[in-house]
Amino acid sequence: MMLYKLLRSLLFRLPPETAHALTLSVLEHLASVPLFDTLMSAHSRLPVKVMGLQFPNPVGLAAGLDKDGTCIEGMAALGFGFLELGTVTPRPQPGNPAPRLFRLPEHHALINRMGFNNLGVDQLIGRLERRRYNGILGINIGKNKDTPLERAHEDYEEAFRKVYPHASYVVVNVSSPNTQGLRSLQSIDALKKLLSTLLDVRVNLAREYGSTVPLVVKLAPDLHDADLEDTARLLLELEVDGITATNTTLSRPGVEHHPLAQEQGGLSGRPLRDQSLHVLKTLHAYVAPRIALIGVGGIESGADACARVRAGASLVQIYSGLIYQGPGLVKEIVRHLAADSTLATLV
Question: DSSP code of 153?
Fold first, then answer.
């Protein structure tokens, strides 16, 4: 941990996106070093079955950190039980203008307005076809910025069809705050249209490929409880497989007076923890045990992860916590979950 704190202090002297790209590049090269993965992933076994999939452990990499799958082997070497790539869109897009990623170190938080910057689904598939990693792989899909909302389902369908044979599960991202209008797809009518389209497509894809890939929906932490209830009822009706709770927040809990608080974008990290946990608990009250829940948002310790499991999460994911706490966080969480009797509640 002390070594990582030193490394973090050096990385934090670089612009956030520069540090991010450098870290991914170095980590991917380290993955080819003999015994690196064995050393990093030791004691990270804690098998759990969720959505019909067998996970080596319930700790995953959240979407957004490796959008284009450039560090699959490197991330896998850290001992994650599963990886989630994306958000990926049908066509490449640069995202929003820089600067668009901001650190709030004293709060262990980030604000980002990246805007689904990615190289496009075809580039991602090319990498997936060459990967060595054969573990659980989620792929998070979204729409291109210039696609009208009334045609958003076409983008999601195109991405869904292309990633289907390569994904262990697919996440429908309708909750990023950084693509204009995207969160309106969380309205009941829009969400029903979108998910019904994808579920109908999945029937044919399952027949073509001989397996049914689980479909997961990622929701915002800013939905009111009444909206969460309505959404839960819809997802139960449609029989989706999972819900990821949550994406980043537009609110600024605990950081209102920070100089960067007025920057547009989604807040992640420690300040999001309680808000995300509340959404998870609320959803669990409606959908358990029929829909699996993935807890993400502000998890930066084993205790945080255990709280998500006690609240009903079957899996947890980290992103900001990994940046602030380092790769040892994966094993710490696995160790705490293994010692927590509530692990038996995983579905």
Answer: H
